[in-house]
Amino acid sequence: MQITIAIMVLYHQYKEWRREKNKNADDTVQKSIDGTKQIKRKQEIWTMKKRKSENADGTKQIADDTKQIKDDTKQNFRMKTYGICGFPWVPIL
């Protein structure tokens, strides 16, 4: 009788352990799904920003601070700096 009780206790403990293990596995799967959704959202935001980078005058802003016109020529619109050595935060003496 005591052996049967001991085996039953071990069996129920094992069953609880398996239940917890499966629950943790489900949480891991949910985290990976959430991560995938987050990546998709970031990609959508990036594509929306890319679309918005086209200006009203039909030009696109390029990484080197120039605008590319529809005929594939570039206009330079670099920010002008003021001050000594071209740094805007250095005061003029």
From TrEMBL:
It comes from the Eukaryota. This is Uncharacterized protein.
